[in-house]
UniProtKB/TrEMBL annotation:
Organism: Kribbella amoyensis
Keywords on record: Membrane, Transmembrane, Transmembrane helix
Transmembrane segments: 40-60
The protein's name in its UniProt record: Uncharacterized protein
Region (Disordered): 1-33, 168-192
Length: 339
């Protein structure tokens, strides 16, 4: 990352943090990188989620990446007993014990560098019993002290917290991350080359903070795809500063921002403001996180910016989230309906 840009972002972040109740340090290295699939910080009991600073340009899953819920319809990620589901990841088979799919949950247990070799095992309480697995067909199969472990993509029937496997294959290779699409058409003459992060100034910071009931946190988009600059060079593709407007006139906001943003600018309509996002997040944090097997909470941008990682969106979880609004949230369940 360009040194000057680091300095600008660090100074802007410091100003923002001075007004906030002890948020964690922002990950400055992530600001200009295109989005990659996220793994959210585990929620242990009532862990809180950090607020997003204007200076920390979060490029997280955008509005068209989460399935919406039509009025009167079930959520497309809802799973009931008897439904076909899919999971991917580690499978562990110990002698004289059920075979388990291990949920990919980060652990906070300290690492003992002096510990002796131990057989593979799921994180305690983070496993799902699976039947019908051909253990010898697992990818990257290993055996340690009699316990077999490998990876697979499993498709089967969900019933009472177990999966009766009917299809087994190698895990799907991770797709390369791509930046979110800029939700504005290019202006006349196209998007201009340049680094939109340089538009993060004290004036922009003040403008956005003063309108937290109207605007979302700005973020950086890459309309021509991921940049691939040479080391020490600025991005080699145009970037755009995007500001979402939940309440108020989009064109009036754009005109007010124009003299403040010396870079490509996109001002677009969104459903919820920073204040409304904070209220949704606070409502989620008050839920019984452990009972619902919620493993992480994140905040992004777009129409469903509160992002919840959880074991499964079953009927019980859906009923608990319903007062907040199922279509106001983005769910990332580990057990998902099979296509």
């Amino acid at each position: 990352m360009n040194r000057d840009v680091d300095d600008v972002l660090a100074e802007a972040g410091a100003r923002w943090r001075a007004d906030q109740p002890s948020p964690p340090e922002p990950d400055l290295d992530r600001m200009l990188r295109p989005r990659r699939p996220k793994r959210w910080v585990p929620v242990l009991a009532a862990a809180s989620v950090a607020a997003i600073a204007v200076a920390v340009i979060q490029v997280l899953p955008h509005r068209d990446q989460a399935p919406s819920v039509a009025p009167g319809k079930e959520h497309p990620l809802l799973v009931r007993d008897g439904d076909k589901v899919q999971v991917e990841g580690q499978v562990v088979a110990a002698p004289s014990a059920p075979v388990y799919y291990c949920l990919p949950i980060a652990t906070t247990l300290p690492l003992d560098v002096n510990q002796q070799t131990k057989p593979p095992a799921c994180t305690p309480g983070q496993q799902i019993e699976v039947t019908g697995v051909d253990v010898n067909r697992l990818e990257d199969l290993t055996t340690v002290l009699g316990v077999k472990s490998g990876t697979a993509r499993l498709v089967g029937t969900w019933n009472a917290g177990r999966i009766a496997v009917e299809q087994q294959s190698a895990p799907t290779p991770p797709a390369p991350g791509e930046p979110d699409k800029v939700p504005c058409p290019p202006p006349a003459g196209g998007w201009q080359p340049g680094d939109a992060s340089t538009a993060i100034t004290p004036a922009l910071d003040a403008f956005v903070k003063a309108r937290a009931d109207q605007l979302q946190t700005p973020w950086i988009g890459w309309p021509e795809g991921s940049p691939n600059p040479k080391p020490g060079q600025p991005p080699n593709k145009p970037s755009v500063l995007v500001v979402g407007v939940a309440h108020g006139d989009v064109e009036a906001i754009r005109k007010a921002l124009d003299p403040l943003v010396a870079a490509n600018l996109c001002v677009t309509k969104v459903r919820v403001s920073q204040n409304e996002i904070a209220a949704q997040r606070a409502a989620v944090e008050k839920l019984p996180l452990d009972d619902l097997h919620i493993t992480g909470i994140g905040v992004g941008v777009g129409d469903r910016p509160v992002i919840i990682s959880l074991r499964i969106l079953d009927q019980r979880a859906a009923d608990v989230f319903r007062p907040i609004g199922l279509d106001n949230l983005t769910f990332q369940p580990l057990v998902r309906p099979a296509p």
